[in-house]
Write a structure and sequence with these properties.
Helix content is about 50%, strand content about 15%. The chain contains 19 helices and twelve strands.
Length: about 450
């Protein structure tokens, strides 16, 4: 089996590339898959090894540190990635026989090093295999931040914040949920098809589905690779979109014939959904600062048969000089921590300071957006993250600073969790969707 057809070899090569280039996980994986000659089955193993090793990196290093005779900082990076993939298989992939996990990792250590590195890898992994039931963590009662951070593989600053907000039990459940394989949701494009037609088609393709939790046009589907390869996706019969994100268009309650401003639109999932709910009547003006990202909005609109989207290059932090409209959406730039099931590398890419710095950008956009809302109109603020400073704090600041706005109750279809009616946080462990935040405001009439 050559390197291009060996999923474990490619997994190590991908982890090496990620560390050298600091690229985005999904883009690097997609690129490797396109160039490889992996079978469909091996594509699944390769993806699991890479995503899993990135997701559990802190945990894997904690385990290795307990069984390695060398400090991890002195282990050559490629060998360390071989060990991480080996430990990931031993601890988290029940379908891989332990002997295969060790033996294949030893071969990789030889391929990326020499006979000495192979012997070292063999010794470390066999130690892990013998001692995997006695892996030690700081006691939860004495040091919950480090216990949860090391066991579930999250940076301490994220764990600390969630513990302060929700306590130990809720934080553990959230971390567990964010480490689960992502659920794939599709939004049926009712401009071209119906839910019944898409269900029948999926059944014929051997794709299983179940109804969305909150929206009739959402289906939870698997396996993901079959959905992505299905011709109906390219024909615009449906669009891949998490149900949490799809709730945004319903929150804004746009009506046919209205004008909607989507100030941070790319890649256009919410804009095309708004057009769908408006029956392709009215106007959705989609803004983004990057022309190449606006091209994605245009392509998605074309594929989905959406005719009412107009794209405009524009920086939402600057004055866009827009006449007031009855509906304005601010899907703000955010830290994205609610999407870690799909993008596990986010936890290692963001720092506390970086997430706090985003708040000023979010506030600047909202200050601008307030001027674009017509009297009696609605302004929706959304993020796909789970920090209080990007979510509730920004929403309450907006109301305090803009007396002509008041919180507007979200539609009844939104799940209730004890928050005020005009804002809502969705959680993977409670709601089965990506982490997401909504705040809805109405501007007073003149």
């Amino acid at each position: 089996m050559g390197p291009a057809s060996n999923p474990r070899y490619l997994a190590v090569a991908t982890l090496n590339q990620l560390e050298e280039s600091e690229g985005f996980l999904k883009e690097v994986v997609d690129s490797q898959l396109q160039r490889s000659s992996l079978s469909r089955l091996d594509q699944g193993l390769y993806t699991e090894l890479v995503f899993g090793s990135v997701r559990m990196k802190r945990n894997l290093d904690h385990v290795l540190a307990q069984f390695s005779s060398r400090p991890l900082a002195k282990i050559q990076p490629a060998l360390l990635n071989v060990l991480r993939i080996g430990v990931y298989q031993l601890l988290y992939l029940d379908r891989i026989p332990p002997s295969a996990a060790v033996n294949e990792s030893v071969k990789l250590a030889r391929a990326f090093g020499h006979e000495g590195t192979a012997k070292f890898a063999n010794g470390v992994l066999r130690q892990v295999l013998r001692g995997r039931d006695s892996i030690a963590y700081p006691p939860l009662e004495e040091d919950p931040v480090e216990h949860i951070g090391l066991k579930y593989s999250f940076p301490s600053w994220i764990v600390q914040h969630w513990l302060e907000r929700w306590g130990v039990e809720e934080t553990v459940q959230l971390c567990r949920a964010l480490n689960e394989p992502p659920r794939l949701h599709i939004r049926v494009n009712t401009l071209k098809s119906t839910v019944e037609e898409v269900r029948a088609h999926l059944q014929m393709q051997g794709i299983s589905y179940q109804a969305g939790r909150y929206l009739t046009e959402i289906l939870e589907v698997q396996p993901a690779h079959a959905v992505v390869a299905d011709p109906w996706l390219g024909q615009g019969m449906y669009y891949i979109q998490d149900e949490s994100s799809a709730l945004a268009a319903h929150a804004l309650q746009a009506e046919p014939g209205q004008t909607v401003y989507d100030l941070c639109s790319a890649p256009g999932g919410k804009a095309t959904h708004l057009a769908q709910l408006m029956g392709n009547r009215g106007q959705v003006v989609a803004f983004d600062v990057h022309p190449q990202r606006l091209a994605l909005v245009q392509e998605n609109a074309r594929r989905l048969g959406v005719e009412i989207i107009t794209t405009r290059i524009g920086d939402a932090t600057q004055n866009l000089d827009l006449p007031p409209a009855p509906r304005v959406l601010v899907d703000a730039p955010c830290s994205g921590l609610g999407t870690m099931r799909h993008r596990p590398d986010i936890r290692w890419r963001k720092t506390l300071d970086e997430t706090r710095a985003l708040v000023e950008i979010q506030k600047t956009i909202l200050r601008r957006a307030a001027h674009y809302v017509a009297p009696g109109g609605l302004l929706l603020y959304t993020t796909c993250t789970l920090t209080s400073w990007e979510n509730e704090d920004v929403a309450r600041w907006f109301l305090a600073e803009h007396g002509q706005f008041a919180g507007e109750p979200l539609p009844p279809k939104f799940p209730h969790n004890g928050q005020p009616s005009w804002l809502r946080t969705l959680f993977p462990h409670r709601h089965g969707v990506d982490g997401f935040f909504f705040a809805l405001f109405r501007k007073e009439k003149l």
